[in-house]
Amino acid sequence: MSDGRKLDADLVILGTGVRPRTAFLKDSGIELAADGSVLVDPFMQTNFIDIFAAGDIASYSYWPTGQRTRTEHWVNALDQGTNAAFNMLGKLVPYSSVPFFWTRHYNKSIQFVGCNNDYAEVFYHGDVAAQKFVAYYIDSKDRVVGAAGMNNSAAILSIMEAIQQNVMPRGSEIKEGKETPQTIQARVKQNVGAGRCKRANCCQKKTVA
After folding, report:
1. Are residues 141 and 71 in the same domain?
2. Alpha carbons 145 and 67: distance in angstroms, whole number
């Protein structure tokens, strides 16, 4: 472990993430980040006017924090690909979605929203032992940059919409008990219609706010 301890185990699972396979672009002139990802602007456009990138290889500026990030999940690849297609058609639609992913094992669901590349602490609300909680990822500026929840999808979806609407409370307010998943949901509902799908001829999903 990082503190020098050694733990006996019969099996170790290591989640290492993925690396962009962009070596073929090395001499193309397309700008790459240090990790090999393709640098794109808010419209998913590279430094070449007619070349766009989306998904695991795209390094984009995440607007809630202003930091560049790369999201490794198919939901975001789908959203980014859609934005890239709009902009190939000259629609000028910036990519502004909040990352979201989930996993489900043995009838237990874990969901995550946001981008926790640079968090300073994690605050838990709920009962971890009972497997029903929300973990808030808070950065050094007291911003909630991400949240993970287990068997608590309503809270996670409200937090995702709060980040999207830029009405997420400060981390200190959550730690002090001034803000809870219920009050965050109330914040979201004040902006009526903000959570409605805005894509023309899309799924017509119901608004969450």
Report:
1. no
2. 11
Pairing of strands 108-114, 144-150: antiparallel
pLDDT tens digits, one per residue of 113-137: 999 888 999 999 999 999 999 999 9
Q: Measuring CA to CA, which residue among 52, 100, 104, 45 is closest to residue 76?
A: 100
- CATH number for the domain that contains residue 39: 3.50.50.60
DSSP category for residue 32 = B
Domain of 170 in residue numbering reads as: 100-190
Q: Is the Cβ–Cβ distance between 161 and 208 less than 8 Å?
A: yes
Distance CA 27, CA 60 (A): 21
Q: Identify the CATH number of the domain in which residue 159 sits.
A: 3.30.390.30
pTM (two decimals): 0.80
206 CB-near residues (< 8 Å, 6+ apart): 196
**Between residues 196 and 124, which one has the greater pLDDT?**
124
H or E stretch at 95: none
Q: Which helix (H) or strand (E) holds 113?
A: strand 108-114
